[in-house]
Amino acid sequence: MFQTGDTGEDVGRIYNAIVDAAKLGVEERVILCIIMQESRGNVGVGTPNDQDGNPTGGLMQAEESPAFPGRHGLSQSEISSMVQAGTKHFKGNLQQVGNQDTASDIYRALRLYNSGSINESNLSDGKGATPSYVSDIANRLQGRTNG
Length: 147
Description:
Layout lengths: L7 H14 L6 H12 L16 E2 L4 E2 L12 H21 L6 H13 L17 H9 L6
Antiparallel strand pairs: 1-2
C-alpha cells in the first residue's frame, strides 16, 4: 500500500474501515482481498467506468462509491465511505446468491461483483470483465499473491 503513495495513517484507516464494514456481514479478509484486487489499497486510485459506462471508484472500485483520485492522507470518514460503499455492493451480490459465508456463495458473489453476471458452470467467464477475478481473490484468501 505504501508503494501507491498511501500514508501510514491511510493504511491504519483502511484497517479501521474494514473492521467497521465487516459488521454488514462480510468477512474482513474478503473485504481486504477485494480492496487489494481492485486498487492495491491505493486510497487515491482513479475512477474507471464499468462495461455499461458507469463510474466505479474508490478503494473497491464500486458503483456509487465516493473516490478521491490522486489524493492521499485522507480522513477516516473519506476512507470509510469508500469501504462501506464497496462492501454494501458486495453484500448485495452475496444476498443474490444465497448470503452464506461459504466458498461457493463468496466466489459466485465475487463474479457478480466483477462482471454483473454469473456463468454457474464457469466462474472464470468474465463476460467482458476480468476472467481470473474469482481465482485471483481465491488465491489471495489463501495467502498466495503475485503482487
